[in-house]
Every structure is written in C-alpha cells, then in structure tokens.
Glycosyltransferase 2-like domain-containing protein (Acinetobacter towneri), 312 residues
Amino acid sequence: MISVILTHYNKGQLLNRTIESLQPQDENLHEIIVVDDCSTDPEWSKNSKYLIETYPKIKIIQNADNKGPAVRLNQGAFSATGDYLFFMDADDILAPNRLNMFLAEMQKQNADLCYAEKVKIHDLNEIQRHTLATWQSSTTPLNYVLENNIMQMCVMCTRELFQKSKGCNENIFIQDESLALNLSKYSKKIISSDLHSVFVILDETETKSIRGENRLSRHLEQQHHDMFFTIDDFIRDYPDIAEQNKKLLIKKAISTYWKSIRHTPQRKFSDFVIYLTSHLHPIQTWNKHRMKLTTYFNQLDHVRKINSRESY
C-alpha cells in the first residue's frame, strides 16, 4: 500500500535508525526504497547488505554518480509500486504509527496529498507519542501550501499524483521546495496536521559526527540558490497560475534574494528597495529586476549547479 522513499548519501547508522522508526513490519508498508547517491562511506557496502538481509521490504538502488537529492527522489518514486508514497530525510525519525494515521486520514477525506509537522529536538526521549491530530484541508492546494509555507519533508501523496506532477525539478539540487510546489499544483485536495511526526535530532554526538557538513540544509547559499530558481522555474513553467499565487511566489523569491545578499559586500541600498517594493508591487518589481536577481544567483561560486542557466 505505502512505498517509502529515502534518498541516501553517507548517512551511516542514522539510516538504520530511520528505517527502524518506519516500523518496517507494518502490514500497510509495502516497501522502503533507499536510493543511494554514490556514497563514499567505506562502510556503506557492508551496511547495505545488512539492511537487505534484515528487512525484507528494503529495496536499495545503487548509483555510480552523484546527482543530488532531487534527482534521486524522483528515481526512487518512479520505481515505487505502492499506491501511496511517503518521503522523509534518511537521517530523521518518524514517530510511531504515523504512516497509518496519514493513510487513514487521506482515505477518509479523499485527499491525494498530506503534510504533517517536521520538528527539531535535542534528544530521542523528546519524541512526542501522542496520537490526537488536528486536521485541516483545502481544495486549492497550491494556495494553501504558499499561504502556510508548507515545504518540509514529511509528505505523503498518491502515486498517481506524483506521476502527474513529475515530482521534483531536476535542475535543482535540494528538492523540498520544488516537490511541494509541483505536487500542490496538480493536487485536488490537500490535508495537513499540526501533529509532530518527523523529528530532526540536533545534538546527539552520533548525529553530529555522521552528518557533519553533509547536511544540505546547513548550506544557506545552496538553499537560497535552489529556492530562488525553484520559484523562477515554476513561474515560467506555469504562467497560468492564479495572480494571487504568483504574487506570493514572487515575494518569496525576492525575500530569498535579500536574505542571501544582505550580509555580503555586494549589497547595495537598491537591493533593500527591491525587497520593500516587492511587498507593494510584486509582479512589476519582478518584471523589472528578475534578470538582476538571476544573474546574482548564477554567479554564486559555492553552490552545486545541476544545469547551466545562461540561456534562461
């Protein structure tokens, strides 16, 4: 029934902990697909063999080149055979029984997209095990996602919706933003809950030593670059989106630009003016300054760029 997709790169034993939190013996869990993005960890070969031998539902896709989580998430999802797909990061922890809760509520409300809360904690003992959830729903999913800034990797959708949306933008390295936008663009009904469901462990010694600098979310330049171009691509690919949604996207893109440039030597007062005017006249500001913003992000040196954007 449910296929879980985990993109993996040098997660060490954190991956094992994540898999165990999924309760792999659950009858509604059809498969756990681990897509390895050419890990360099010398222990990975031994650990992947252990996982396959220990968990019958595990499928591991090995890759000989490193393409980033967006490409690998799509690879895993398009190979899935479950009716529902669940995505989370391969070093986080899922609270008990959440997959069944999401599935039951989606079926009850006839929804094709579900989001729940991803939270940061300092200790495994802090994981909340309560099961009472407050659910909200919307039949205008894209607007709902934008209004509520829903972008975290704690998402379940139907396989049909994923295939229709084509998943992540593969021109982007970090996938969270593009996955949320593309799924919500094609979704007919979204449900979301304030229930804490996926947990990021912040300060465990093991977590720190294994994650190190591999945790992409710590790389703010990459985050800003990918968020900006996710929005830029989305606006270009879907010119027919409602004006209200376009304004929300533009405000977010220009806000991302300001966050990225404001602490750098390149910052000018005119950049702050662009940020301010985007709140009053977002579309006009975007049309006037888009090329300047794209040039800035294209020239960032320390980010992973999948494809050249010079012709955009």
